[in-house]
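Quiz preparation item.
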């Protein structure tokens, strides 16, 4: 939770910074990588496992333990992609790197859209008549 909260805070700050600095010609790039074959998973320290959290975080713990050393992303290709985007005439605010990251972000946004569509009538009902 804390890791994701920090990432979301950084994303929101970067979006705001991008809007504030654009008139000055300063660009911001948010890089949103998936799992890359770096030493981060090998060096990750996990708190002792608590059986009470098996249902909520047990799967993530197993995934992290099982992915170390076989992550799908190539760090050299990621670096080349970042340089390519930074050199682009019109770079995006966000650069999602890795098929796993693309799939996860797409699923997240589809879930957000589904909730909005499901509750759109309620959302719109709050306007002043």
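Solution:
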């Amino acid at each position: 939770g804390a890791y994701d909260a920090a990432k979301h805070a950084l994303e929101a700050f970067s979006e705001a910074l991008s809007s504030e600095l654009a008139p000055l010609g300063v660009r911001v790039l948010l890089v949103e990588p998936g799992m890359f074959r770096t030493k981060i998973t090998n060096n990750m320290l996990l708190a002792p496992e608590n059986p009470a959290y098996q249902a909520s975080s047990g799967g993530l713990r197993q995934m992290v333990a099982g992915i170390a050393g076989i992550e799908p992303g190539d760090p050299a290709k990621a670096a080349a992609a970042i340089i390519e985007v930074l050199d682009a005439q019109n770079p995006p605010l966000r650069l999602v790197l890795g098929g796993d990251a693309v799939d996860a972000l797409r699923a997240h946004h589809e879930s957000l859209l589904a909730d909005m569509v499901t509750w759109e009538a309620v959302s719109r009902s709050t306007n002043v008549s």
